[in-house]
Design the sequence.
C-alpha cells in the first residue's frame, strides 16, 4: 500500500522519499494542486511557484535515484512568507504598493533550502509589511483576510498568516515565517501547528524585508517540534550578507532529559480566555510527568515600553522613504495608511535608552532563567478571533500586555509554540516554551517530549467543507 | 543559590535601580500636543480629520511609552546593546 503523504511529518516523509516509496515529483504535484485549489479559499497564497517547483522536484528525483541523497529535506515541498526575495518571482511583502516588486536574487534561507534539496512551491500570504504599520484587523493584507483552516470565519493569525494556514491545511509540509514580535507564535497558535522562533541571529535575514533590524527573525512552522529541528538545521548558520548571524553552524541534537525544570511566570494566564486557561492547566498537568514546574517572576522592568520603542523607531527608519512617498495611502487596512506617521517623533535618546536597557534586560532575564530549561506560557491569551472584526480597538503596539513577547523578542530568545488543546468552539490553543539564548535544542526537546505524550499535533482540520466540490484534489 | 535567590537578587537590583531614579525631568505637559502638531505639520495634508485623530492617539501612546522608559535610571557605563566594528576593505 502506498503511504499517504498528507500530514506526514518531514522525518517520515523523508524516509519514504529516500527509499523510493514516495516520488518527489508526485509529492510536489499533490501539494501544488492543494496550494492552487485550497490556497485561494483560505487567502493563504500569493504566488504558486509551479514551474520552479517541478523543475526542482525532477532534479531531486534524479539525484535520489542516483544515490545522491542530501538529507531529510531532500524532495520535500515547502512555502515561504512572501517577504523573502525570490529571483524573478514577485515578492510582495503582502502589500499592494509592492505587488510588482521583483528581486534578482534568492534570500539566503531559500538558497540554503535549495541546497538541502527542498522544493519551493509557494510564496505565502502575510499581513502587509509584516504588520509593522500597526494593523488591528485580519483584512490587513492585499490578498484578503487570511482564513483559519479550523474555521474560515476566524483568523489564521499574523503576520506569518499564510505560513501557519498552509501547514495547518496540508498545503505544504512546512513553511518559513518571520517574527519581529509574535508573528510566528501567533499563527502557530491560531492554526494549531508547531512554530519555532529561533534565537536572534541564528538564521540569516539576507533577502528578507526589514521591519526592525534588531528584532527580526526567521523560523519554521511545521507539524511537529522534531520537524522544526530538521528545518532549522538546514537554514541556520553564519551568512556574510547578514553580519548579525551567529558565527557557528547549528546542529539539531535535542537535549532530552529524564526531568526538565520549567518555570511558569506568575500571573501568566491573567486576562486569558477561560478555554485557554483550561487548556494551559491541563498541559501543565501533562508536563508534570516529565518535569518539575515552579512559579517564577520576571524582575520588574518596563519590557513592553522598551521593545515597543525599539520597534517604533526602527520601523520608522526602515520605512522612511515609504512614509515620505505617501505610498502608505495605498495599503489595505485603513489604520496602516497612517500608522507610521506618529512613529516619526520617537526621540533618538529614547531609542538609545531602550537599547541600553536591553543590555540590562538580557543579563537580568538570563540570570533569572538560568536554573530552568524553559519558561512556559500560553502562546496567546486567546484563540483565533473572528475574521471580520478588529482584534484590538487600538493599535497592538500601543496597548497589548505581552511580557513574554516583549522579553523574548527584545532579548532575542528562542521560543516554540505547540498545540495543547482546543476551545469549546473547536479552535486550537497553543503553549510556548521559551528558552535561554541559543537553547533551541533544549526547547525542541521539551516540545518533542510534550508531543510524545499528547496527540493535539496529529489532529487536522477537515478541509472538505472549505474545498469546492469541483476540486480535482486527491489525498491519495 | 536557588532560583528564588537569583530572582530575589535580580529584584533587588531592579529595585535598587528604581530607588536611584531621580525625579522625572520636566518635560512639557504639552509634549504630546507639541509632537502631534509636528506630525500634523509634516503629514497633515495627506490625512483626513478622522485619521489625524487616530494619529493623535498614537502620539500620546508613544509619549507615554517614552515616559515609562525615562523613569528607569541606567549607569553611565550601560552602553546600547549594539556592537559597532570599524570597517576596512581587503585592499
Sequence:
Amino acid at each position: 500500500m502506498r503511504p499517504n503523504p498528507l500530514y506526514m511529518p518531514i522525518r517520515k516523509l523523508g524516509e519514504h522519499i529516500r527509499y523510493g516509496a514516495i516520488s518527489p515529483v508526485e509529492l510536489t504535484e499533490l501539494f501544488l494542486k492543494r496550494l492552487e485549489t485550497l490556497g485561494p479559499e483560505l487567502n493563504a497564497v500569493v504566488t504558486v511557484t509551479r514551474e520552479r517547483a517541478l523543475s526542482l522536484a525532477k532534479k531531486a528525483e534524479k539525484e535520489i535515484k542516483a544515490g545522491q541523497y542530501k538529507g531529510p529535506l531532500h524532495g520535500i515541498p515547502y512555502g515561504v512568507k512572501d517577504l523573502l526575495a525570490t529571483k524573478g518571482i514577485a515578492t510582495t511583502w503582502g502589500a499592494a504598493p509592492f505587488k510588482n516588486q521583483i528581486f534578482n536574487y534568492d534570500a539566503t534561507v531559500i538558497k540554503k533550502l535549495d541546497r538541502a534539496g527542498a522544493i519551493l512551491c509557494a510564496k505565502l500570504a502575510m499581513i502587509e509589511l509584516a504588520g509593522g504599520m500597526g494593523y488591528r484587523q485580519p483584512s490587513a493584507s492585499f490578498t484578503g483576510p487570511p482564513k483559519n483552516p479550523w474555521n474560515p470565519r476566524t483568523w489564521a493569525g499574523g503576520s506569518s498568516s499564510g505560513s501557519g494556514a498552509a501547514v495547518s491545511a496540508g498545503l505544504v509540509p512546512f513553511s518559513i515565517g518571520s517574527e519581529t514580535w509574535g508573528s510566528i507564535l501567533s499563527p502557530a497558535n491560531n492554526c494549531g501547528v508547531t512554530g519555532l522562533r529561533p534565537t536572534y541571529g541564528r538564521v540569516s535575514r539576507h533577502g528578507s524585508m526589514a521591519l526592525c533590524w534588531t528584532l527580526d527573525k526567521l523560523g519554521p512552522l511545521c507539524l511537529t517540534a522534531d520537524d522544526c529541528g530538521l528545518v532549522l538545521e538546514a537554514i541556520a548558520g553564519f551568512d556574510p550578507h547578514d553580519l548579525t548571524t551567529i558565527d557557528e553552524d547549528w546542529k539539531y541534537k535535542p537535549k532530552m532529559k529524564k526531568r526538565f525544570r520549567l518555570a511558569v511566570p506568575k500571573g501568566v494566564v491573567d486576562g486569558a480566555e477561560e478555554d485557554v486557561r483550561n487548556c494551559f492547566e491541563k498541559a501543565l498537568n501533562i508536563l508534570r510527568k516529565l518535569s518539575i514546574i515552579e512559579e517564577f517572576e520576571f524582575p520588574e522592568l518596563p519590557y513592553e515600553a522598551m521593545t515597543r520603542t525599539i520597534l517604533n523607531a526602527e520601523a520608522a527608519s526602515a520605512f522612511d522613504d515609504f512614509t515620505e512617498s505617501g505610498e502608505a495611502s495605498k495599503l489595505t487596512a485603513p489604520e496602516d495608511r497612517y500608522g507610521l506617521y506618529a512613529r516619526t517623533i520617537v526621540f533618538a535618546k529614547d531609542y538609545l535608552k531602550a537599547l541600553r536597557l536591553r543590555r540590562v534586560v538580557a543579563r537580568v532575564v538570563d540570570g533569572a532563567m538560568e536554573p530552568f530549561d524553559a519558561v512556559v506560557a500560553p502562546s496567546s491569551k486567546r484563540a483565533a478571533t473572528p475574521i471580520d472584526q478588529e482584534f484590538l480597538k487600538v493599535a497592538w503596539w500601543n496597548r497589548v500586555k505581552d511580557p513574554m513577547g516583549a522579553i523574548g523578542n527584545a532579548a532575542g530568545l528562542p521560543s516554540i509554540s505547540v498545540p495543547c488543546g482546543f476551545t469549546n468552539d473547536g479552535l486550537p490553543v497553543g503553549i510556548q516554551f521559551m528558552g535561554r539564548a541559543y537553547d533551541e535544542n533544549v526547547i525542541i526537546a521539551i516540545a518533542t517530549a510534550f508531543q510524545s505524550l499528547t496527540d493535539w499535533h496529529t489532529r487536522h482540520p477537515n478541509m472538505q467543507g472549505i474545498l469546492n466540490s469541483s476540486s480535482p484534489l486527491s489525498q491519495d | 543559590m536557588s532560583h528564588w535567590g537569583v530572582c530575589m537578587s535580580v529584584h533587588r537590583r531592579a529595585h535598587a535601580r528604581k530607588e536611584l531614579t531621580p525625579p522625572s525631568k520636566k518635560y512639557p505637559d504639552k509634549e504630546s500636543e507639541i509632537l502631534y502638531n509636528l506630525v500634523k505639520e509634516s503629514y497633515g495634508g495627506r490625512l483626513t480629520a478622522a485619521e489625524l485623530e487616530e494619529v493623535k492617539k498614537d502620539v500620546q501612546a508613544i509619549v507615554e511609552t517614552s515616559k515609562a522608559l525615562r523613569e528607569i535610571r541606567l549607569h553611565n557605563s550601560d552602553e546600547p546593546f549594539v556592537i559597532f566594528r570599524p570597517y576596512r576593505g581587503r585592499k
